[in-house]
């Protein structure tokens, strides 16, 4: 059993897709053990995506991630990090496999509906960035 961190991004909350995405998550045997809806401010979004601060898409990414509500989540299950990355699909929905969240719902490479941690270490860091211990109930 392990945990990963997920964000349902503004393009998805705007289109009322939270429940549809959670259905896919739960049907893949990942359990949502922490969840809240937030409006990210610039500082929080920049801190979260600090690794991309020198990328050409960084400013657009921050503008997009602060443009509407997000749902931050902790998902628990066997091999949670890799499992969720597989369910999400490729960053660019044009390359995403049939049946993945991004293939179904993403609008383009930026507005790609979900985030998922890319390693165990980052999952831990990202979970701690958004959640207090008391907000996680397994
Ligand atoms: P995430 O970290 O959100 O789970 P990812 O790991 O698949 O996505 P990253 O390379 O970490 O992809 O990029 C972070 C986010 O930045 C992407 O999910 C997307 O919203 C945006 N992004 C990435 N590449 C581009 C690009 N070339 N043009 C515009 N936006 C991009
Ligand atoms: Mg990433």
Could you explain the architecture of this structure?
The protein has helices at residues 10-14, 18-27, 42-48, 58-65, 80-88, 101-105, 120-130; strands spanning 2-8, 31-38, 70-77, 114-116. The protein has 138 residues and is an alpha+beta fold. The chain has a 4-stranded antiparallel sheet. The structure holds adenosine-5'-triphosphate and magnesium ion (MG).
Largest sheet geometry:
4 strands, antiparallel
User: What is the CA-atom radius of gyration, in angstroms?
Assistant: 14 Å
Low-confidence stretches: none
- Number of helical segments? 7
Instruction: State the separation between the terminal residues, measured CA to CA.
Output: 11 Å
How many strands? 4
Oligomeric state = single chain
Overall outline: globular
Query: Compounds present?
Result: adenosine-5'-triphosphate, magnesium ion
Structural class estimated from helices and strands: alpha+beta
Secondary-structure element order, as H and E?
Answer: EHHEHHEHHEH
The fraction of residues in strands falls at: 15-25%
Helicity, as a percent range:
25-40%
Strand order of the largest sheet: 2-3-1-4
Whole-number average pLDDT? 98
């Amino acid at each position: 059993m392990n945990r990963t961190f997920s964000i349902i991004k503004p393009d998805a909350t705007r289109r009322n897709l939270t429940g549809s995405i959670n259905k896919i998550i739960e049907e893949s045997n990942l359990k949502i053990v922490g969840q809240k809806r937030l409006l990210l401010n610039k500082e929080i979004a920049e801190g979260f995506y600090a690794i991309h601060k020198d990328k050409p898409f960084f400013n657009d990414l921050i503008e997009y991630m602060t443009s509407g509500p997000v749902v931050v989540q902790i998902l628990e299950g066997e091999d949670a990090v890799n499992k969720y990355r597989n369910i999400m699909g490729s960053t660019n929905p044009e390359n995403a496999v049939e049946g993945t969240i991004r293939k179904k719902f993403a609008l383009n490479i930026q507005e790609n509906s979900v985030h998922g941690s890319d390693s165990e270490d980052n999952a831990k860091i990202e979970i701690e960035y958004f959640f207090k211990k008391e907000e996680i109930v397994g």
